[in-house]
Amino acid sequence: MCAIWSEVLKRPIRYAGNDLDALEDGLKHAAPAWLAYDMRLMMRRYQQDGAVAKAADVERLAALLGRPLRSYREFATSMAAEWADQPAS
Fold it and tell me: Origin, by domain of life (predicted)?
């Protein structure tokens, strides 16, 4: 993922690591403690099990969207282009 974002944003992006204590502590500065804790639990689950969809889930989502799903690279490229079009704040 970092390689994809580095490529589409044309700047280095690095993985921040697996330290869920640091994640939760950092999130508490921008969100309520309950949300920081929930995000910690969600990230722990992703670290343990990943987030790969079953074929039936992919088919159902494509049917709901009315189009094929995009790859992660396509998503990142689209978002980078959209962000580039936004005026600087």
Answer: Bacteria
Domain carrying residue 60: 15-84
Distance CA 24, CA 33 (A): 8
Q: What is the dihedral of CA 23, 28, 33, 38, to 10 degrees?
A: -30
pTM for this one? 0.69
Does 4 reside within a domain?
no
- Number of folded domains that form the chain: 1
Q: Which of 31, 64, 27 is nearest to 43 (CA)?
A: 27
Q: CA 37 to CA 62: how far, in whole Å? A: 32
